[in-house]
Amino acid sequence: MQALILTGFGINCEEEFAAAYRLAGAEATIVHLNQVLHGQVSIHDFDILNFPGGFSFGDDLGSGVVLANKLRYRQTGAGGRTLLEDIKEFIAAGKFVLGICNGFQVLVKLGLLPNLSGHVTPEVTLTHNASGRYEDRWVTLRVNPLAQTPFLKGIDTLEVPVRHGEGRLVISDAAIQQRIEAAGLNCLSYLDAAGDGTGVYPFNPNGAALNCAGLTDPTGQVFGLMPHPEAFLSAYNHPDWARRRRLNPSASEEGEGLQIFKNIVAHIAHSRTAATAAENEFATQN
Ligand SMILES: NC(=O)CC[C@H](N)C(=O)O
């Protein structure tokens, strides 16, 4: 299982991302974006393509905008191919894409999320937090039961940190909002202390539409979220870990964020085993 983690140009969460995949049992390779853009590394040699958080291109023109434009317009070699074309093929081959924070912003600005149309054009946006400031705090999330993505399988709620200035999801078209909700693409919502979805600050740290902290595409293969599950890999990452352990001494020492990475690694392993079994059956029958 091979996870490709892109870095460079101000991305700064690639090591946490790699640690998450290694703990989940996958191999993680950190690669500078230019190595991919210059054709030295092919995304097709990997199973999961990852866009970490950070401040790519200094958040100039809006977080994620410049990197999204590089993926859409920068030619990766002779023939005028772009990385976006490779990414479309990668997804069509049944592979997975994950973007966290700045990576989520890239996927949204590019139009890979939510991608209701299938044409990879921006349908929603992420902009400055309603508070007008950078938010650095822990939040509680609930997984939408309608969500179809294997990344979130079996998860009900989780606590994770956010650290961003431009996390407010804006959906200006009511029809698009309706389709997102109907398909459960708004896969994660911010919860208040009573465990209900909320637009109230600081539980909802940015004022996002639909209290939405993360989106998937209709296939469930592309997933992005503002909070950082890769920053909660050990129970001891939680600011309140001592009290949590006192309340529940037998609780796992894993952080709640790790499950997302374990889920996708297990899902790919399971699909491979099923594919091999089908091939073997075909071979014995013929
Ligand atoms: N941690 C991050 O990835 C931050 C993303 C982006 N730079 C923002 O502030 O919104």
Automatic annotation (TrEMBL):
A Gene Ontology biological process term: 'de novo' IMP biosynthetic process
Please provide, alphabetically and separated by semicolons, the GO molecular function terms listed in this UniProt record: ATP binding; hydrolase activity; phosphoribosylformylglycinamidine synthase activity
The Gene Ontology CC terms held by the record are:
cytoplasm
Record bears the keyword Hydrolase? yes
Keywords noted in UniProt: ATP-binding, Cytoplasm, Glutamine amidotransferase, Hydrolase, Ligase, Nucleotide-binding, Purine biosynthesis
Residue intervals passing through the bilayer: none
| One Pfam family cited in the UniProt record for this chain | GATase_5
- Superkingdom to which the source organism belongs: Bacteria
Which residues are the signal sequence here?
A: none
The name of this protein is Phosphoribosylformylglycinamidine synthase
